[in-house]
From TrEMBL:
Recorded GO CC terms: endomembrane system; membrane
Binding-site residues for Mn(2+), renumbered to this chain: K266, D290
Name of the protein in question: Cellulose synthase-like protein E6
Protein source organism: Sesamum radiatum
Gene3D superfamilies: Spore Coat Polysaccharide Biosynthesis Protein SpsA, Chain A (3.90.550.10)
Subcellular location field: Endomembrane system
SUPFAM superfamilies referenced in this protein's UniProt entry, alphabetically: Nucleotide-diphospho-sugar transferases (SSF53448)
GO molecular function: cellulose synthase (UDP-forming) activity
Biological process annotations from GO: cell wall organization; cellulose biosynthetic process
Broad class of the protein's primary localization: membrane
Domain of life according to the entry: Eukaryota
Protein residues bound to UDP-alpha-D-glucose: K111, E112, D141
Topology relative to the membrane: Multi-pass membrane protein
Amino acid sequence: MDGPSPPLNARRVLTKDLIVNRLYMLVNGIAILALFYYRATTLLRIIETRETPLVPYLVVIFSEIMFTFFWVLYQAYRWKPVKLEVYPERLPGDEKLPPVDVFICTADPSKEPSLGVMNTVVSALALDYPPDKLAVYLQDDGGSYVTLNAIREAWKFARFWVPFRRKYELKIACPAAYFSSKESAHEKFIGSSEFAAEKKIIEKKYAEFEEALEKNSVNASASVSRDHSPVIEVMTDENGDSNLKDMPLLVYVAREKRPGHPHHFKGGALNTLLRVSAVITNAPYFLVLDCDMYCYNPLSARLAMCFYLDPKVASKIAWVQFPQKFHNLSEHDIYGGSLNAIYKSNIGLDGLRGPNIYGCNFVMTREAIYGTGKVEKEVDLNKLKKSFGSSNEFIKSLYKSYKPQLPEDRKPSAELQKELQLLASCTYQWHRLGEGQVGYRYFSVVEDAITSLSLHCKGWISVYVDPASPCFLGATTTNLNDMLVQQTRWPLACQATSGKGCRFLRACVMLTIFWNLSMSSLFMVSDPYFIVFAFIFLSSRLKHVQETIAFGDPLRNTVYELRVWMMKSVACYLYAILNAILDRIGLHEANFSLTSKVVDDEQETRFKQGIYDFQVSPKLLIPLCSLYILHLVAFIIGIARLFQKNDELLAQAVLSFFVVIVNYHLLEGMFLRKDKGRIAPSVTLLSIAISAIILGCGSLLLFY
């Protein structure tokens, strides 16, 4: 009698990190309690004696409460760090693997060049997964003929690339990455004359593919439309008599766009793909990719199945999150492009209910996103229509017995095309079953962190998988402008929804801004509790250093991460919350600015050299420069008083000195650099003026 099957995954607690983290929490927690005891007793004395202005002291206490609130929340991921391991070689045979749909979104071929997008499409087609159980959908939000022609060319090239990758067991799924890397074919084929000959043919085909896309991309920006009917095209061979069974399905989707109809950006695009794919393939799982995040390791879908086919946890897992990793990182990660500051937390979140959705590189179940399992026949049809809209075919896809209606020749019937047009229309409305209008009118998969919160609260869990060979690789931002614009855009998720959960998220974002704008505290060196403040500050910095080293990053990344955190907090989150407020009261329409994937050689050179490029919108730079000048002035005044033998505010001078040193790149950009990437003199002058006004108002406040 056979024994139990070996596990498909394993969870290993990182004991050393767990001990260090909990000791840090204990000691730092005691110090924080001592700090608040000091604040409470001092506040009572100030109220009685009026020895110090009350308002500034209340502001400081409020700031420290915010610090503490977020510190407590932040300890959740440190509580139980774990490492997940997967064993795809133990999966059952291909005939037992469930189908998977792949969703890719693009919007503008002038900002997202066709070659990069189509490499992502072709790499998804080349995943190591049964071709009859794999379908790839490209949602083109620009309705561009450039993108439509490009995907047709991608299909032609994929007819050669996919069999080649599969035959020679290439470890890299993306053609562009394969041809620019060392050989990744299985060692048994290396040196074979047949392999060498076929590789030469594929290289020629790829060169022809590149050339065709380059010719097709002329005047790409003019091809983008914001007012067009839906277009759905299933890719097939031109002659129509080829055997398609060895190729995954490839579908082009351009949802309808009309002026005056909200389209909800990427969340709306994914909603459309969920509906359209439901009546074509209806795979129970779907993988979401950004258009510049190509499949590198072809095993990603199988790695996800190591959880979804595990009977112990399969029914609980809503999504499997893979990290975003990048092929264009510099040794100087000055813009935090590696996102390691985020992914450090996932090691601990796997010890809880799992990580959030991070926008792409995740495999999710339809059951979780729909808010229901496969529906039985007795469920009321009108109830389903109220939740899932007016499409009968889409509602049928919810039933266990449903089989998609796409013929073997992959040419949709007239009836199916009509249904697809309806599902891709801009007026189609649906939401999660049973939620009415409380949560989401258009259910946003990605652009709202509340999706993660909502699913976790409903009992679902998620997992984070980081294999040795990255599953996906993309292009990170290589200049300050793109980084700040991107970080301003991500918090706009708050605008997508209403409800208590989202109001809580907005409050957290607002508190984050207050937290990071208040970078000082009131302590006198002569005060016996000064040591408590100094301990909390130093222990936090040392913990950051310890985590950076433990994660395998160079020590200088500690400074880079701190700089990025300060820049995001002061500039990006401030404008994100202002945009959300203005949009909520109807004075501003939310917009979704794409991060350009077009490479600027001059900016790229500065990025590789670790030099900041300050060719940034003034509205993002001015808050940064103004706050820096304030700290610079505070430091100078503090040193001047120190020479007058007045050391009462030495702590504030030291803290301002810390901010000045960490953000030395701003001082350099404003006053020392003369190259094209410096901070514009007009921005510097305006920042000085704003700082002077703030200092003047602060002096008046203290005086009165």
